[in-house]
Amino acid sequence: MPDKKQDLIDQSLQDLNNDGVDRRGFLKCMAWAGTGLVWTMSGGVPVSRAFARDYGKKADKGGDFTFVQISDSHIGFNKPANPDVTATLQTAINKINAMPHTPDFIIHTGDLSQLSKPSEFDTLDQTLKGLSAKQIFFVPGEHDMLTDNGEQYLQRYGKGTKGTGWSSFDHKGVHFVGLVNVANLKAGGMGSLGHEQLEWLEDDLKGRSASTPIVLFAHIPLWTIYPEWGWGTDDSEQALSYVKRFGSVTVLNGHIHQIMQKVEGKVSFHTAMSTAFPQPAPGTAPSAGPMKVPAEQLQQVLGITDVNYIVSGRSLAVIDSPLGS
Amino acid sequence: MMKKNVCLASVALPVAIAMMLLAGSSSVTANAQPSATAAEVKIDNFVFGPQTITVPVGTTVTWTNSDDIPHTSVSTEGVFKSKVLDTDEKFSYTFNKAGTYPYYCTIHPKMTGKVVVQ
Fold first, then answer.
1. What range does the domain containing A163 cover?
2. What residues 53-112 of chain A have any CB closer than 8 A to a CB of chain B?
3. Min CA distance, B38 vs chain A (Å)?
4. Which of A97, A128, A204, B64 gets the highest tally of CB atoms within 10 A of its CB?
5. Considering the domain boundaries, does residue A29 fall inside one?
6. DSSP states of A257-315 as a string?
7. What pLDDT, on a 0 to 100 scale, did the predictor assign at position A36?
8. Which residue of A has its CA nearest to B102?
9. Phi, psi of A321 (to 5 degrees)
10. pTM of the complete model
11. Are A146 and B110 an interchain contact pair (Cβ–Cβ within 8 Å)?
12. Share of chain A above pLDDT 70, in %
């Protein structure tokens, strides 16, 4: 079975690599994404390979490094789709701690809590304390800004950020930008970055060398996946226009509780699994509500994403791992 | 339009009286109460149902969230604003002026609805 999977992945990658955004190849990739796929951006050409277990072992050479994305913990959610989201977050943490090398840091792409309650944030903090990696960067999800325009979120997780919680930092030659697209949402719209943040982003990227690898992360996808369910960001085009000149751009999102990937030119888009509950594939259910799966399958549809940066190719490789693997 | 006899405890009695009065007479002025009726909007599968609801002046509209995900019901023009409604939580607002009141879920802004008060 693994060999069969491997063949299919290789075949689909062949399709993809031949023409960049071949639809057939892309769909195949999507279908197999849940089993663990490595995306490498190398000189603007998307190169992918099947799950490489020893990939992370190389991460201590030179300036190579690994970081991990977790998303959509929804602490406080207690419905049948997953009555114990704290336990599955703990499983995710155990998985991160068991990695061959401690990641340099963690990125949480939002929906830390279910209802922005102080007790939920407290539980999250307690649970995250168990992480081997001590530095965590956050962006808020819409669930984290429910009651007070995000005041509490900002106090707890947004120290040193601007506006509603956006910020940027550099790490070993890679420029990271955390964006907020869940604040001040307009009736009938999708995610929104807003004018002030876009101006800041343009300014933040100005003057940086085009060879600097860029990682953008935000809660709601920065590409339109399914507008009927609001799975996109109304003004993401403008944000993406600012990164067009860069040779390697990786966009990491959450919100949709499933893996989706797209490569457009030099920009590689990726959404992560949730640590709490899965959501249906676009249009396959009456709504985007939590998807109930048999208990024994839950750990296959929750997961983490680790990202390896390889200095030699100025490339980032994105690997998804279900909790139950 | 849905007329329900089961309402929030705080409005159940005046509504019941008003309904009885309405049955007998078209003008209700007793106790300077506006003619009170009740209507319900269900939030189900990320949809306000019915999406447009038309009610007489004085109607108390109650939104009930039946989803496993929290929602809000917030007037686009700042007229009313629910707190965050978790599963099975309710929000009521009484419309005392005629007009059209568009609203949406601030968490999932694709969810929109309208209350038309006549």
1. 61-322
2. 77, 79-81
3. 25
4. A128
5. no
6. SS-EEEEETTEEEEEPPPSS---PPTTSSSSSPPPP--GGGHHHH-EEEEEEEEGGGTE
7. 35
8. A187
9. -130, 120
10. 0.81
11. no
12. 80
- Torsion over CA of A118, A120, A126 and A127, rounded to 10 degrees? -160
Sorted by where each begins, the domain ranges of chain B are 9-117
CB < 8 Å to B86, chain A? 115
Q: Under an 8 A CB cutoff, do B68 and A79 touch?
A: yes
In a domain, A14, yes or no: no
Question: B9-117 in CATH: which number?
Answer: 2.60.40.420
**Scanning every residue of chain B, which has its alpha carbon at the shortest distance from the alpha carbon of A230?**
B110
Q: How confident is the model over A145-183, as pLDDT tens digits?
A: 998 889 999 999 999 999 999 999 999 999 999 999 999
Q: Is A200 helix (H, G, I), strand (E, B) or coil?
A: helix
Q: How sure is the predictor about B7, in pLDDT bands with cuts at 50, 70 and 90?
A: very low
Structure ipTM: 0.80
Residue A145 lies in a domain: yes
Q: Do A289 and B112 touch (CB under 8 A)?
A: no
Q: Which residue of A has its CA nearest to B111?
A: A188
User: Which pLDDT does position A62 carry in this prediction?
Assistant: 65
The residue written with tokens 């949809």 in the block is: B47
Residue A80 burial (10 A CB sphere; 0-12, 13-18, 19+): exposed
Name B29's Cβ contacts closer than 8 Å, sequence gap at least 6.
none
CATH code assigned at A230: 3.60.21.10
Looking at the structure of chain A, the number of domains it has is 1
Nearest-angstrom CA–CA distance, A28 and A293: 23
The most confident of the ranges A16-30, A43-57, B37-51 is: B37-51
- pLDDT for A240 beyond 60: yes
Tell whether A188 lies on the interface with B, counting CB pairs under 8 A: yes
Secondary structure of residue B48 in the 3-state scheme: strand
To the nearest 10 degrees (0 to 180), the angle between helices A2-19 and A23-32 is: 150
The predicted structure's pLDDT at residue A61: 52
Best residue in B44, B48, B76, B107 to probe A by mutation, most A CBs within 10 Å?
Answer: B107
Structure tokens at A96: 């991160």
Structure-token pair, residue B103: 């609203």
Structural domain contains residue A233: yes
CB burial readout B61-100, b (16+ within 10 A) else e = bbbbbebbbbbbbbbbeeebebebbbeeeebbbbbeeeee
Question: What average pLDDT does this structure show over A197-226?
Answer: 96
